[in-house]
């Protein structure tokens, strides 16, 4: 059955949605995006995603005002039309359509706005009961990883490198230190139970799930330390895990073939996943 998608003000069957070959998102990756989780038919962390969307658009000098209520209305309608109980809503905004040039127009071009849904089964997420295995690879992305752009070719290549190596995903490493994963923030848990994750900067995406999960962890009196950690420190950690809108909190059980602990999800990552889901549903829309 065809999905209903949203494109430039209208709902339509996915087969009918067309974007110009001169769209700057297509030609130059001149676009930003957000992914909002859907659980029990409700949107998680919606306002956090809208605030980050505003930031990304501002950093790239987009002439577009985010209408929070209108975007919420569309996303809820897509969830209803496509009968999404658990999955995601994807939102992408490009600078719009004009003749190809590195110099982008200051005015007169309307942004392209696209939204669609995916069921959880279509995302094929890993099983939190078994966790995921990752490899490490050099981080070769551009220097503004804090902006959520559609420039995702290198993360895609790193993901495929991991899959071809028999793993699930990859930790990206710069100067020996883990920045993040291909599409998520990365964490370790030290032997004394401290949660460690890289501090916010232009080196990593300012994850919405990251912010929410860390708040819940601190409220639960868990110790959190925001600092870089090396790939070697990660391999010797008690636990590791990732966070993202599509995975919530997902344990990492192996890094570069080295099992963490007994090779199964640890108590801290399991508890954080429970906390994130329980608490986020209380404020879901």
Give your account of this protein's structure.
With 285 residues, the chain is α+β, with helices and mostly antiparallel strands. 29% of the residues lie in helices and 28% in strands. The protein contains 8 helices and 15 strands. The protein has helices spanning 24-28, 46-59, 68-81, 120-123, 153-164, 208-219, 231-235, 267-283; strands at 4-7, 10-13, 31-39, 42-43, 86-94, 112-119, 132-138, 169-174, 177-181, 185-189, 195-197, 224-226, 239-244, 248-255, 258-259. The strands form 2 sheets. Strands 7, 8, 9, 10, 11, 12, 13, 14 and 15 form a 9-stranded mixed β-sheet that branches. The chain has a 6-stranded antiparallel β-sheet with strand order 2-1-6-5-3-4. Helix 6 crosses helix 8.
Low-confidence parts, pLDDT < 50 over ≥5 residues? none
Query: Whole-number radius of gyration?
Result: 19 Å
Strand content: 25-35%
Mean pLDDT: 95
Annotation field: number of helices: 8
Oligomer class = single chain
User: What form results from the Cα inertia axes?
Assistant: globular
Q: How many strands appear in the DSSP assignment? A: 15
Classify the secondary structure makeup into a structural class: alpha+beta
The description of the largest β-sheet is:
9 strands, mixed
How would you spell out the order of helices and strands? EEHEEHHEEHEHEEEEHEHEEEH
* Terminal Cα span: 26 Å
The portion of residues assigned to helices is 25-40%
């Amino acid at each position: 059955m065809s999905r209903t998608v949203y494109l430039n003000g209208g709902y339509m069957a996915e087969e009918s949605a067309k974007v110009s070959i001169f769209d700057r998102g297509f030609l130059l990756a001149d676009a930003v995006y957000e992914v909002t989780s859907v659980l029990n038919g409700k949107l998680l962390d919606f306002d956090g995603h809208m605030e980050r969307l505003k930031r990304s658009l501002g950093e790239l000098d987009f002439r577009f005002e985010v209408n929070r209520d209108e975007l919420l209305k569309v996303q809820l309608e897509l969830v209803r039309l496509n009968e999404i109980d658990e999955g995601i809503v994807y939102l992408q905004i490009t600078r719009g359509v004009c003749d190809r040039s590195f110099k982008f127009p200051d005015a007169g071009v309307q942004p392209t706005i696209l939204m669609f849904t995916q069921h959880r089964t279509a995302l094929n997420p890993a099983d939190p009961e078994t966790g995921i295995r990752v490899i490490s690879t050099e981080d070769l992305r551009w220097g503004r990883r804090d902006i959520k752009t559609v420039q995702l070719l290198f993360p895609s290549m790193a993901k495929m490198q991991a899959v071809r190596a028999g793993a699930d995903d990859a930790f990206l490493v710069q100067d020996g230190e883990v920045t993040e994963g291909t599409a998520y923030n990365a964490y370790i848990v030290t032997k004394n139970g401290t949660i460690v994750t890289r501090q916010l900067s232009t080196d990593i995406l300012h994850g919405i799930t990251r912010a929410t999960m860390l708040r819940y962890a601190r409220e639960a009196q868990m110790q959190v330390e925001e600092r870089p950690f090396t790939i070697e420190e990660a391999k010797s950690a008690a636990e590791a895990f990732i966070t993202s809108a599509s995975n919530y909190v997902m344990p990492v059980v192996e890094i570069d073939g080295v099992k963490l602990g007994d090779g199964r999800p640890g108590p801290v990552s399991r508890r954080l996943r429970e906390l994130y889901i329980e608490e986020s549903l209380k404020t879901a829309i």
